[in-house]
Amino acid sequence: MTIRQVGLFADGVAVKQIGREPWRLARQCVDEVICVNTDEICAAIKDIFDDTRSVAEPAGALAVAGLKKYSEGSVVSGATLVAVESGANINFDRLRYVAERAEVGEHREILLAVTIPERRGSFLQFCQALGSRNVTEFNYRYFDRAAAQIFVGVSSSASRTDRAELIALLRGKGFAVTDMTENDLAKEHVRYMVGGHAPGLLGEVVYSLEFPERPGALLKFLTTMGGRWNISLFHYRNHGAAFGKVLIGLQIAREEHRLFRRNLDDLGFTYREESANPAYRLFAGGNEQDAGEK
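Below the sequence we write its predicted structure tokens.
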């Protein structure tokens, strides 16, 4: 059998057709074939690094990914399992992709699209519904007066039932939820595309914030803000750094700008207003900017 096209992520094992001698040996010695996906290979690279502080290439970590999947699907107790790791031919610029996908591959991140009411305090209510779970990603842009679509990443216990339990919990609290954890389009593209220009006049001010990256910090921020101002733009991603970075847009009356900054000062966050930043104005600003310039 010849495969028409093969993926290049694990290029060391990407062949369109198995060779004659490997096929002969496989028929004699191989009892089972286990298939793994890219996320599971990335998780295996991370496991190898955690254990040995060495970075394997995707093809080199393939056996570890297969071993992990075998042990999850089989009753293994008191056995010694061996995986042969070979190869460290990986480019530095690929490590970011590996780190991004590893959390999903080892079932430690759940990606969801959630519909929440477009009103003040909805973000806070949603974060409170998550309880003690850590938010790893939060993307949102105002679009509709009635409902807000948010793309959110949430930490997981690595249990295979955890995702279903979280989705059931959120649906039980009235949120419409679509699971994006295994959606490649969402993971590779849409998560970076959430946003764009607001559809109308918002009276929006935009700030970039930095806060200590620890569990509960995001919830503390939203709790302090309360429901006084409507959030019209929000972008956050946990990259494992010491400080988390948030880009936030809020509908704040001009006379309350000073009160908002005072709240940020009380929290001890580092912040900067970005309303005049050309990156924001060109790619995310509301239509009022265009109207004011014509």
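Residues 38-52 form the longest helix (15 residues).
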